[in-house]
Amino acid sequence: MRLFLAIDLPSSLSEDVAAVQELLSDADSLQFTDPEQAHVTLKFLGETSPDRLDEVEDAVEDALDAAAVDPFDASVGGLGVFPSLDYIRVIWTGVTDGADEMTRLHEALERETTALGFDAEDHEFSPHITLARMNDARWKAHVRRVVEQEAPTIGTFRVREVRLKKSELGPNGPEYGTVARFSL
């Protein structure tokens, strides 16, 4: 199964995520994420045998103990893109307050999971929620203009747990399910 570790946004913010996506709705070439499934990925694990779930869960517990992060408030807003405004693949909204805590969690999870043989991240961690993916450049100028001119606020929520999640690809995009929850 395809696994990752994440912090889910509460469903109370899904309408706010959808409102920000609406700013980009004129761009036909965008593939929008489901606002009900909005999350911050802390560590992508990839294809993982179910036989490894116990060791993964133990590693997550060890990482959270090492990170020593108590429940905290996180604020989400603004717009950005990966990898750059010249070559847009992903449009995201970022984490402002709470980014330091999420980075500490990511670093601890990275240490523990790479010790198990999972691939190390090949880019700097930047806590964000993916809003859409761009499949072609026809609407690049429009997306760039929105990203440069808009600074939406999605909201603030209390982070109390990290979730081990699975991703299953379906006809309407990925569907995420929670495999395990880990309290901070």
TrEMBL record:
Its EC number is 3.1.4.58. GO terms for molecular function: 2',3'-cyclic-nucleotide 3'-phosphodiesterase activity; ligase activity; RNA 2',3'-cyclic 3'-phosphodiesterase activity. It catalyses: a 3'-end 2',3'-cyclophospho-ribonucleotide-RNA + H2O = a 3'-end 2'-phospho-ribonucleotide-RNA + H(+). Pfam families: 2_5_RNA_ligase2 (PF13563). Keywords: Hydrolase, Ligase. The keyword Repressor does not apply. Transmembrane segments: none annotated. InterPro entries: Cyclic_Pdiesterase (IPR009097), RNA_CPDase (IPR004175). A motif (HXTX 1) lies at residues 39-42. Belongs to the 2H phosphoesterase superfamily. ThpR family. PANTHER family: RNA 2',3'-CYCLIC PHOSPHODIESTERASE. Hydrolyzes RNA 2',3'-cyclic phosphodiester to an RNA 2'-phosphomonoester. NCBIfam families: 2_5_ligase. This is RNA 2',3'-cyclic phosphodiesterase.
